[in-house]
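Why should sequence recovery work at all? Because a backbone constrains its sequence more than one might expect. Tight turns favour small or flexible residues, buried strands favour hydrophobic ones, and helices have their own preferences. The token representation captures these environments compactly. In the example below, the structure is given first.
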């Protein structure tokens, strides 16, 4: 029997989160007072219209931007209380990121790209390479280890990006439209892969998407609208 959701530890959360963009005297609020708890192994979809602030929220949860108000907690640690160096180390260890565009480094091979987050944790080259090879084989790229991004198809590049996001066994993976640049069949394959690895590693997943068909397959679906987060009933998705 699976562990009850209420009994799982919280791996990522925000409290009273607010963001205001300021340019000169112009102040543009994106959202205010958001609260979110993501538990271990949970999958969460965030829906919303373009410009609603979904990517901004994901960047704040990942410690890539600083909120105007409120706090973000990753693995129980308050991000605002950490130095830039400590925040970067926590982000590399506890979070994984998958974007619409793969952001693989073009001069490096697939295995070298996936190794990088492990090396940044201070792991030796041999162990980092072994872990990267294992993940790439798990996503069906065992025959593409030495290929650079330009030699991979769009779906293969995204699968390599999934492997890179999971290589440090993070507490949570944040995905910003990770299948939005793929055709329907390839998107479904990559999404199935993400969910399979999520369940295998018990890694939480927070996914920003426009695709309600994919969102329905996650544990919870939230909508960001007019600066507020609301959990949707299954009939609303």
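From this structural description, the recovered sequence reads:
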């Amino acid at each position: 029997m699976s562990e009850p959701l209420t009994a799982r530890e919280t791996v990522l959360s925000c409290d009273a989160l607010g963001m205001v963009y300021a340019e000169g005297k112009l102040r543009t609020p994106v959202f205010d007072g958001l609260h979110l708890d993501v538990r271990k192994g949970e999958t969460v979809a965030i829906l919303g219209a373009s410009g609603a602030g979904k990517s901004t929220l994901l960047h704040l949860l990942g410690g890539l931007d600083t909120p105007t108000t409120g706090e973000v907690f990753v693995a129980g640690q308050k991000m605002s209380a950490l130095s830039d160096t400590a925040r970067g180390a926590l982000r590399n260890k506890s979070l994984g990121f998958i974007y619409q565009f793969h952001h693989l480094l073009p001069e490096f091979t697939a295995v070298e790209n996936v190794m990088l987050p492990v090396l940044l944790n201070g792991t030796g080259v041999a162990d980092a390479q072994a872990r990267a090879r294992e993940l790439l084989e798990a996503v069906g790229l065992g025959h593409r280890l030495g290929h650079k991004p330009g030699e991979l198809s769009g779906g293969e590049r995204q699968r390599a990006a999934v492997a890179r996001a999971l290589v440090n066994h993070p507490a949570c993976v944040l995905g910003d439209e990770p299948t939005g640049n793929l055709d329907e069949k390839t998107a479904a394959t990559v999404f199935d892969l993400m969910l399979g690895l999520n369940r295998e590693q018990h890694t939480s997943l927070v996914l920003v998407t426009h695709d309600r068909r994919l969102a329905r397959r996650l544990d919870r679906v939230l909508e960001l609208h007019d600066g507020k987060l609301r959990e949707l009933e299954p009939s609303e998705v």
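A few observations help interpret the result. Helices lie at 54-61, 84-94, 110-120, 125-138, 154-166, 184-201, 212-215.
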